[in-house]
Amino acid sequence: MIKAIINLKIVHKNLRKLKKILLPQVKVCAVVKANAYSLGDVSIAREIESEVDSFAVAHIKEAVRLRDGGIKKAILMLGVCTDCKTAIDRNITISIQSVQEFRALCKALLGQQPAKCRIHIKVNTGMNRYGLTNIWQLKSILTAAEKNPGIQVEGLYTHLAHEADNPDEIDLQLKKFAPFKSIMRARFPRAIIHAASSGSSGYLPAQFDMVRVGKLMYGGLDGYHTAVKIISKICAVQNLTSGARVGYAGTATTTRPTVCGIVPCGYADLAHINYGNKYSVLVDGVRCKVLGRVCMDSFAIDVTGIKSPIGKTVTLVGDQKGLRLMDICRETDTIACNLLCSLHFNRAEVTYKA
User: Fold this and answer.
1) Helical axes 60-68 vs 41-48, angle rounded to 10°
2) What is the pTM of this model?
3) What digits encode the pLDDT tens for the residues 304-319?
4) DSSP class of 158
5) Of 3.90.180.10, 2.40.37.10, 2.30.30.240, 3.40.50.720, which CATH number belongs to 228-318+320-353?
C-alpha cells in the first residue's frame, strides 16, 4: 500500500509567501515542466492559474498537454522548439536560443499569415547550455523580427547557474546580461525581462519584470512548505540477530538484535534510492532508520522500538520537521528537483487535497 496526498493549499501558500518578497509589479511564471516536478502538471496548473501570470515547460508535448487540459494563460517553452507549427497553432510562446532557430520559426510562419507567434529570446550568461552569446546575434534577430508581422517579441531572459547564497556569481551573470537587456529595452521597451528562478527569486537585482519558479511551489526550497505527503505500511518483519546484514550487498549490519520492518515502496515508487542507510522515516511518532539499500519495490527499516509493527503507517515525506523535502535533501545528499522528479506515482493511490 502506497499513498500520496498532494496538498494544493500548500502550493497556494508557497506562492503567497513568494509574492511577499517580490518587488511590486514583478510577474510570476509557474514552472510546471516534468509533469510539475512529478506532482501533476494539469492538476497543478488548473489550481494556480488565477494566481500566476504564465506557465513554463521544457517540451512542446508538455505545452500541448496543458492546452488540452484547458489552460488559457501564456505558456513559455524553455527548451528548443522542434515543432514550430504546433507551437503557433496552440499559441505557445517559443524560446529563441539561436539565429538558426529564429530562421526556422520565420520559415514555419510562411504561408500562415496572419498567424502570429510570441517569442522570448534567451541569452547565455554562464550556464553554457542554451542561448545567444553575442550582441550581434540579438541585434540580427530583433531587426528581422521588426520586419516580420507574424512575430511578437515579448521577452528576453537568461538562466542563472547559482542561487541567492552566491550573489557574487549571480552578479557576474547579470553583468553579462546587462548589454543585452539595454538593447532590448531600447528596441522593445515593453518586453518582459527575466532571470531569477526559485533559488534566486529573493535576490532583488535579479527579479526584473518576472521570476520563474518551480521547486519552491512544491517545497523544494528552504522556508517553503512541502506540498506532498507520502505514506505506506509495514507489510512484514524479520527478527535479526546481532551481526546480520541487510539488503543488496549487505551494506547495513545490525549491532544488536533488531526487528527489521519491510515497507512495500521502492525506488520504482516513491522512495528515493539515496534513502539507503541515511534517512529515517516516521512510525508511531518515532524516527526509524532505513537499513541497507532501497530496493526497486521495498526497503527495510529498524522498528525494534515499535510495538506490533506489521500494518503500522510509515510516513516517508510530509510537511513536518525531519520529513520535509529540504530535510530529506540534507540527510541524503540529494537536490530537491531530483528528489521530486524521482517520484513515480504509477503504483500509488494519489489524491489531491484542495
Assistant:
1) 60
2) 0.94
3) 999 999 999 999 999 9
4) E
5) 2.40.37.10
